[in-house]
Amino acid sequence: MPELPDLTAVTKLLADESRVALLSLLLSGRFQTVHELAHAVKITDQTASYHLKRMQALEWVSSYKQGRSVYYHLASEQLAALLENLLNISPRKKINSFKKNQAFKELKAARSCYSHLAGALGVNFLDCLCQKNFVTFQHEQLALTPAGQLFFKDLGIDINKLPAKGPLLKPCLDWTERRFHLAGTLGSAFFKECLRRQWLRYTPASRAVTLSWDGKLFFDSLNNPLV
């Protein structure tokens, strides 16, 4: 029999504040246990498990069992993009606590957007790529130049070996900066390389990332007109 999309099921899922908080954490792109997620959202493990199973029923999250632990992960980058778009169109609410204000500042400075770099650092990185003519950005379309291909190759990222699935470069509208950062398979490969080199490190119980000293040197070098 033919089937119609059940948009009501989606809106019901997003109507709960705890579920929205869990989804926001899963936007980090990392696998996380029920206990880790529950602790970050400040709900019980049982409540977090209930919410995650509801999300799994709609195929919004996937799980992986290793030993006695079950790890949860956002199901797809397409879903991550949808959630980021919802963040862009959502009304803003005031932050009234010092702790929440500090957490927001960390997210705004640098964070993971599923598998690529977002926040002010991510936006600035794409700006630098454009200024140095490593990529061109016209009509909301990104293209890699020969100089850009050499730049990424020097970082250990071989364009020819990246997954063929999905676009190589894609602009992603940043919900805190309201400008674009770099997504696509190249954006994901760059973020992965930053983590591998420990230029970036995840903040516990958050999708914010912080710069190491070596990471600061690298990103500062991009702003140097002589480099």
> In order across it, which strands form the biggest sheet?
1-3-2
Mean pLDDT: 90
E-strand count: 11
Segments where pLDDT lies below 50 for 5+ residues? none
- End-to-end Cα distance, whole Å, is 61 Å
Q: What share of residues is helical?
A: 40-55%
What's the alpha carbon Rg, rounded to whole Å? 19 Å
β-strand percent reads 15-25%
Work out the helix count.
10
* Rough outline: globular
The structural class is alpha+beta
Short descriptors:
two-stranded antiparallel ribbon, 3-stranded antiparallel β-sheet, 10 helices, alpha+beta, 48% helix, 227 residues
How would you describe this structure to a colleague?
With about 230 residues, this protein is α+β, with helices and mostly antiparallel strands. It is built from 10 helices and 11 strands. It has helices at about 5-15, 15-25, 35-40, 45-55, 75-90, 100-110, 120-130, 145-155, 185-195, 215-220; strands spanning about 30-35, 60-65, 70-75, 110-115, 115-120, 135-140, 140-145, 170-175, 180-185, 200, 210. The strands form 5 sheets. A 3-stranded antiparallel sheet has the order 1-3-2. The chain has a two-stranded antiparallel sheet with strand order 4-5. Strand 10 (about 200) and strand 11 (about 210) form a beta hairpin. The radius of gyration is 19 Å and the shape is globular. About 25% of the residues are buried. The model has no long low-confidence stretch (mean pLDDT about 90).
Layout of SSEs?
Blueprint: H1 7-14, H2 17-26, E1 32-33, H3 34-41, H4 45-57, E2 61-66, E3 69-74, H5 77-89, H6 98-109, E4 111-113, E5 116-118, H7 119-131, E6 135-138, E7 141-144, H8 146-154, E8 170-173, E9 180-183, H9 184-196, E10 200-202, E11 209-211, H10 213-222
